[in-house]
Write a structure and sequence with these properties.
alpha/beta; Helicase, Ruva Protein, domain 3; Rossmann fold; 4 domains; three-stranded antiparallel beta sheet; 40% helix; 16% strand; globular
C-alpha cells in the first residue's frame, strides 16, 4: 500500500525577517451558506516499490521558501499585508485577509453592463419594445420577419431591447410549434465579413445534430456561408440576426448576403430577419442602395433617457445593494447628473456601481450622495480609457493637442485643422517623435470623430479663405488630458 508524506513548506514573507514553517495548508472552500474551513495537509503518494520510511533527523527535508520570480511579493503591500493582531502568525491570519460578507452589494451583477435584465426591469422603452415586436411578429408563425434598423446614442437601450424582443420571440414561436433562434454579433469586434459570418454560423450551430463543423478560422468566406445556409435549413424555421454597432463593419457585403439569402435561393426552409443597430443616424446614407432597399424595411430611433426614466432604471436595479445602504438622495442625484450630460443609462448604472465601490473602499456603511460626484469622474475616466485602448501614439498626440487647445481657450466652437496640427507638431518634438503629414492627421481626426470622441463641422471662409473644418472635443478635456498623461508615463 502506498505511503504518504506530509509536505513541509516554509514561507519567507518580504515584510518580515522571519521564515515561517508550514506543516499544513489551510484551504477555504466556498459552500452554499458562506465558507467552511478545513485543515488539508498536502500528501504525495510514493511509488509502491519504495518502502515507507518514517521521517528522521537525517531524512526530513530542509525547509525552503516558495520559489517565486525576483521582486514578486506574496503580500500586496505593507498596508495590505495580513491584517492581524500583534503576535499573530501570518499563517493564522487567513480569517482577516478576505472579506466574507459584502456590506454594500447583495447582487452586483445587476449593475454590470453585460447583464440582461428580466421582464419588469426594462424601464422607459415600452413603445420601442412594442414597435420592434410588431416588426418581427410574423416570425412566430414561421413567416419572414421584417428587417429592422435601430438608431440611437450609446446607452439608450437599443441592444437591450433587441435581445429582449428576440428572446421573447424564440419562446413564443416555440409555443406555436415554430423552431426559432437568434444570433448576436458585436460588429465592433467582428469587423470583417468573414469574422461576422463565422460568429453567426457558430452561434446557431449544434455539431451533434448537424454534423457540421464551424472552426474559428481556416475556411474561406464562401465556405462559412455555405455551412451557415446548411445549418439554417437543417435546424430552424426562423432565425433573427442582431448586428450590433453595424457601422463598424468594413463593408456592406454581409448585409447583402443576409438580406437577400432567401431571394437568392441560398436558404429554402428557413426564414431570416436582420436587426441592425447603429449609434449613427447618418449610417444609412453610406449604405449600398441595394442593401438599403432590403435591409431598411423598418427604422426606429431610440431617444436618450430623461431624468425620470434614469431614476426608474436605477431604482429597478437597487436590489443590487443591501437594504438601507443607498441614501434617499443617491439615485436622484445620479439620475440628474446622467440626464443633464448624456441621457445614457449605461453610464448612469456605472456611476451607481462606482459610488457603491467608493463607499466599500472607504469602509462606509451607506452610499452617500457625495460619492456620486466622485463616481461620475471615475466613470468618465474609465470609459475614455477604454475608448482609446490600443490606439497608436500619434492618435493620442492628436487628441492631446485638441485637449490642450480646449483647456487653454475655453469652450469654443472648435479649432481648425491647421491649429490642431501646429500643437500636434510641438507635442511630437517634445516626445522625440517625427510628426506625421497633415493629410494623415486629418485621417486620425476623422477616426476620432467616427468614435464620437470629437465632433467635426464644415465652415466656409468665403472666397478669401475657402472651406475649412473645425474639430471639438466631445469628452471633458481634463479627463482626456489625464488619461493621455497616464499613457505617456507608462
Amino acid at each position: 500500500m502506498a505511503g504518504t508524506w506530509l509536505l513541509d513548506i516554509s514561507v519567507r514573507f518580504p515584510t518580515f525577517d522571519t521564515v515561517f514553517p508550514v506543516n499544513s495548508l489551510e484551504t477555504r472552500l466556498p459552500m452554499a451558506s458562506g465558507y467552511t474551513s478545513v485543515n488539508h495537509p498536502l500528501h504525495f503518494s510514493r511509488p509502491p516499490t519504495a518502502p515507507l520510511q518514517p521521517p528522521t533527523a537525517h531524512n526530513t527535508p530542509t525547509p525552503t521558501p516558495f520559489h517565486r520570480k525576483p521582486g514578486v511579493c506574496l503580500t500586496t503591500s505593507k498596508q495590505n499585508a495580513f491584517h492581524r493582531k500583534p503576535g499573530v502568525s501570518p499563517m493564522d491570519a487567513g480569517d482577516d485577509l478576505f472579506t466574507r460578507e459584502d456590506p454594500i452589494f447583495t447582487n452586483k451583477e445587476l449593475l454590470e453592463i453585460s447583464h440582461l435584465p428580466g421582464e419588469g426591469r426594462i424601464v422607459g422603452r415600452d413603445d420601442e419594445i412594442a414597435d420592434l415586436a410588431t416588426a418581427v411578429n410574423p416570425a412566430i408563425f414561421g413567416q419572414s420577419p421584417s428587417n429592422v434598423l435601430i438608431y440611437g446614442k450609446t446607452g439608450t437601450g437599443k441592444s437591450l431591447c433587441a435581445k429582449y424582443v428576440s428572446q421573447r420571440l424564440v419562446n413564443t414561436a416555440g409555443e406555436e410549434g415554430v423552431n426559432a433562434t437568434f444570433a448576436y454579433v458585436d460588429c465592433a469586434q467582428d469587423t470583417t465579413e468573414t469574422q461576422a459570418v463565422q460568429t453567426i454560423a457558430e452561434g446557431v450551430n449544434d455539431p451533434e445534430h448537424t454534423g457540421i463543423n464551424v472552426p474559428d478560422k481556416g475556411l474561406s468566406t464562401s465556405t462559412y456561408y455555405k455551412r451557415l445556409w446548411r445549418i439554417l435549413d437543417q435546424r430552424y424555421d426562423v432565425v433573427l440576426i442582431i448586428l450590433d454597432e453595424i457601422d463598424k463593419l468594413d463593408d456592406d457585403a454581409i448585409l447583402m448576403q443576409l438580406s437577400r439569402a432567401g431571394e437568392a435561393g441560398k436558404i429554402t426552409d428557413c426564414k431570416l430577419g436582420v436587426i441592425g443597430i447603429s449609434n449613427k443616424i447618418q449610417y444609412k446614407d453610406r449604405m449600398d442602395e441595394r442593401v438599403k432597399s432590403s435591409l431598411c424595411e423598418r427604422e426606429f430611433v431610440f431617444p436618450p433617457y430623461d431624468a425620470d426614466q434614469l431614476r426608474a432604471i436605477m431604482q429597478a436595479r437597487s436590489d443590487a445593494f443591501h437594504d438601507d445602504v443607498l441614501e434617499p438622495s443617491t439615485i436622484p442625484r445620479a439620475a440628474a447628473l446622467a440626464a443633464r450630460e448624456h441621457g445614457d443609462a449605461r453610464k448612469a448604472i456605472d456611476i451607481l456601481r462606482y459610488a457603491g465601490e467608493i463607499a466599500q473602499a472607504n469602509g462606509e456603511p451607506t452610499v452617500r450622495e457625495e460619492f456620486v460626484t466622485q463616481a461620475r469622474e471615475r466613470a468618465e475616466t474609465d470609459r475614455f480609457r477604454e475608448l482609446i485602448r490600443g490606439s497608436t501614439p500619434h492618435s493620442r498626440y492628436v487628441l492631446q493637442a485638441l485637449a490642450l487647445l480646449s483647456l487653454s481657450n475655453g469652450r469654443q466652437d472648435g479649432f481648425r485643422t491647421s491649429r490642431v496640427y501646429e500643437i500636434y507638431e510641438n507635442i511630437c518634438r517634445q516626445e522625440g517623435s517625427d510628426s506625421l503629414s497633415l493629410r494623415r492627421v486629418r485621417d486620425l481626426l476623422k477616426e476620432h470623430a467616427f468614435l464620437d470622441i470629437i465632433e467635426q463641422s464644415k465652415h466656409s471662409g468665403g472666397s478669401a479663405e475657402g472651406s475649412y473644418t473645425k474639430h471639438q472635443l466631445l469628452e471633458d478635456p481634463a479627463v482626456v488630458k489625464e488619461v493621455l498623461t497616464e499613457g505617456s508615463d507608462r
